[in-house]
Design a protein that fits this description.
By secondary structure, the protein is of the alpha+beta class. The protein folds into two domains: 64 residues, Arc Repressor Mutant, subunit A (Orthogonal Bundle), CATH 1.10.10; 140 residues, 3-Layer(aba) Sandwich (Chorismate lyase). It is built from eight helices and eight strands. β1 and β2 form a beta hairpin. α1 packs across α3.
Length: 239
């Protein structure tokens, strides 16, 4: 029986389903996931489509392959451990006033990397946005965001001076499901060191964040650069 046609690419649906199964505990670390042939039959797609989905998860470090054996779970994603909140919501909880300056707002063609992340075609039109996020007047975060123009036709500078999540839920009327974070320690380039008022030898945190909606489509892909002396990430991990 053929599955219903989705408005998102099938490889994105397969990728999301595998990720959800790992998060739910259906697949544990070092478990082998179904073969490409099994997944191709389940979703009524080609093995090339399945490979594209698993390639993305391998690139994210969620899966790994053993040649001639199969594809296995490398680690359990942690994005569902914490409640997903916007920067504005986080600052409000800390008793700080959040403000945002939109440095860049432009439309351009998506390259292959961004198109793949957003689940759109290469050369489709996207918004490229740079924002500075402040708390009580101090710069905490610098962001580079990519969003589909077709999916977000009414977004504007005024909206981006507030919350993207609020725009999605209150204006677009869609439900945000979860975000996938990849965190890296980096050294700032000249632009970031000047912006944050720190030396180029002071480590900062970079987060690559993809936000997914309940229908499996991508709201945005954002690279966040955290002014580490100001903004720290704190976690409580329970056994």
């Amino acid at each position: 029986m053929k599955m219903k046609t989705s408005k998102i690419p099938q490889y994105k649906k397969i990728e999301r389903d595998i990720l959800n199964n790992i998060t739910a505990g259906c697949y544990k670390k070092n478990d082998m996931i179904p073969t490409e042939l099994e997944l191709a039959k389940k979703y009524n797609v080609s093995r090339v489509t399945v490979r594209r989905a698993t390639d993305n998860l391998v690139a994210q470090g969620i899966l790994y392959r053993t040649p001639g054996v199969g594809t296995f779970v490398a680690k359990t994603p942690t994005q569902k451990i914490a409640t997903l909140k916007s920067f504005t919501e986080e600052m409000e909880e800390l008793g700080l006033k959040a403000t945002t300056k939109v440095n860049t707002f432009m439309i351009k063609e998506a390259d292959s990397k961004i198109a793949d992340i957003l689940g759109i075609k290469e050369n489709d039109m996207i918004y490229y946005i740079e924002r500075s996020r402040y708390a009580n007047g101090d710069l905490y975060v610098f962001e580079k965001t990519y969003m589909s123009v077709k999916s977000n036709p009414s977004i504007s500078i005024k909206i981006l001076e507030g919350s993207k999540y609020e725009y999605a839920e209150k204006i677009r009327g869609v439900k945000i499901d979860y975000s996938f974070h990849q965190t890296f320690p980096i050294l700032p380039d000249k632009m970031l060191s000047k912006l944050f008022g720190i030396s180029e030898t002071t480590p900062i945190i970079k987060i690559a964040n993809t936000t997914y909606l309940e229908d499996g489509s991508v709201l945005d892909f954002t690279e966040l650069f955290l002014n580490s002396p100001k903004y720290q990430l704190n976690y409580i991990r329970k056994r």
